[in-house]
């Protein structure tokens, strides 16, 4: 097979690329070999425990029938003004209790600790604690979100879908096929679009403090449609699922006056031509069932969809390129004739 051009009569035994027809059999083989999207078991295995207090959290501590302990700033003040801040070292000061280590305790464990210490000064103290400001555990977001503000881990567990929903996805710029969740120095890659259509998509992924979510941009995740189409262009991937029919449709379809139906190619390169040949998939667009097959053929990021010209188009282009050249030759010949005739006069 020649490596410089595509020809219908060439075999698929070239050393640099192989020509593969797009047929129902190829689609069936691709589907059989494709693996269903999976979620790393380490993500689904994590279940959040009771919320544990941390530095920066603000607590509202109520001692019933003792307003001087509950609202030292006055009952007319906002709840936050009477909040007790957990210090950077994790300690908390409370009247008659003194300093105690609050960080790492659940709300119930801290309530028990304060109750036990107050017993020396208050008969049968009734203590209640609520967190009025969560600040110690956060999830950070970056990339193609509408809002990238950190989100707090609270008493109510936070899931990945909730975090993404609250942040909002930039539909024009985001690539949902490779969301990255970083946790404990490990990266988990998730195809949220594929997962949403699979059984795995029903599993909740709970987040914990320190997690970070990166939603990549699609500016480097493109396929290219060129040749005899109405609008040659680069097509950005918003999801991992783009069919050949969709790619051609976004480019306006085949140019009916210049495109050759049999010359629809999807060129898929490789990183190292020395180790493996590139693959060129060919669609016979003259067949009535061709675009039904094309609707099931997946285009990958980096693919080049090329629609070749029909024979008459090639001839017209040859003529259009030849005519300016023939005009120059004719002008040169006329000039030489005029010079010869002038020299004879």
The percent range for strand residues is 15-25%
Question: CA-to-CA gap between the ends?
Answer: 61 Å
User: What is the CATH topology assignment of the largest domain?
Assistant: Outer membrane lipoprotein wza fold like
Helix content: 25-40%
Instruction: Characterize the overall form.
Output: rod-shaped
Q: So how many helices?
A: 9
Structural class category: alpha+beta
Low-pLDDT segments: 1-14, 325-340
How many structural units, i.e. domains?
Answer: 3
Radius of gyration: 35 Å
CATH A-level architecture of the largest domain: Roll
The beta-strand count equals 18
Q: What does the largest sheet look like?
A: 6 strands, mixed
Strand order of the largest sheet: 1-16-15-18-12-13
Could you explain how this protein is built, in words?
By secondary structure, this protein is an alpha+beta fold. The protein folds into three domains: 17-34 and 219-334, Roll (Outer membrane lipoprotein wza fold like); 52-133, wza like domain (wza like fold); 137-215, Outer membrane lipoprotein wza fold like, CATH 3.10.560. The chain contains nine helices and 18 strands. It has helices spanning 24-33, 41-45, 67-70, 107-118, 160-167, 192-196, 244-250, 290-294, 311-344, and strands at 17-21, 58-63, 84-85, 91-94, 98-101, 127-133, 138-143, 151-152, 179-183, 186-190, 212-215, 222-227, 233-236, 242-243, 259-268, 278-283, 298-299, 304-309. Strands 1-16-15-18-12-13 form a six-stranded mixed β-sheet. The longest helix has 34 residues, at 311-344. The protein is rod-shaped and about 100 Å long. The chain starts with 16 loop residues before the first strand and ends with a helix. InterPro entries: Poly_export (IPR049712), Poly_export_N (IPR003715), SLBB_dom (IPR054765), Wza_C (IPR040716).
